[in-house]
Fold this protein.
Amino acid sequence: MPQGIDRERVRELIEAGGQLVEVLPAKEYEEDHLPGAVSLPLRKLEVEARQVLDPGRPVVVYCWDSA
Amino acid sequence: MYDYVDGNLDWMAAGLPTEGTNARRPRAGDVARKDVPVSRLDERLGIVRDRVRASGWDACVVVNDERVVLGLLRAKELGKDAELRIDQAMRPGPSTFRPFVSIEDMAAFMVEHDVESSPVTTSDGRLVGLLLRNDAAKAALDPGSAR
């Protein structure tokens, strides 16, 4: 279960080499995403995460909001 | 693994940069004037008015020590009795907008509702700048002029 974090913690993790993952559909990622984030839509997450992400660095997932 | 539960919306509401096709289009936070004069609640209107006009403005945003927006002084409020405290003269609780709102939406809203200026704030109410209707309309017509 991922640990919920706020914006300040996100920034700390980015500075520490964390990886940002947007799980929204690719079209929404193309329009707006956090700097440096990669796109891994939810339906692809399990399959592609191991190929795209470095398991040795923190991973932060996010979508549009908490709803 | 971590979950940034408040996500994109929270990030953009804080006025932080994003990447993507929309990021290249001007938004309220890009066009809002960051040099708008500010005042505190306990100042006297006459002193604030002199300061505001000396800087070439006819509007002033009232903020607290954390720059959270408390009120707005437009030309009408600035013209009141010089001895009033700002909290007695200001327009309290003005409508504010988040920095990520598209400038096209802002211009349309401000023209439709005849709003001459609107504070742009982060999600926790801190002042980013004052968006002027003329600036919003100009940027909406010519996005290249905003950046």
